[in-house]
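Write out the 3D structure for:
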Amino acid sequence: MNIRYFAWVRERVGVEEETIEVPGGVKTVADLISHLKTLDDNHAAAFEEEDAIRVALDQLHVEADTDLGDAREVAFFPPMTGG
């Protein structure tokens, strides 16, 4: 699965994107976040504030309890503000 990181999430992880093998027990976005936190200290730091991170599956905004299904891309980013 292709994982993309934006803004401060990217800065904390240290890469813009990566491709990972998702373990069989990872079914939802929340499961994926839990898995990513175990990868290393950078990922753990990036997902410290899970509630402050927004997620998109294949470019559609979703909630943490959303099933990953056959998604090919997951993007993590902070809330957007604008004016």
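The first strand starts at residue 2 and ends at 5.
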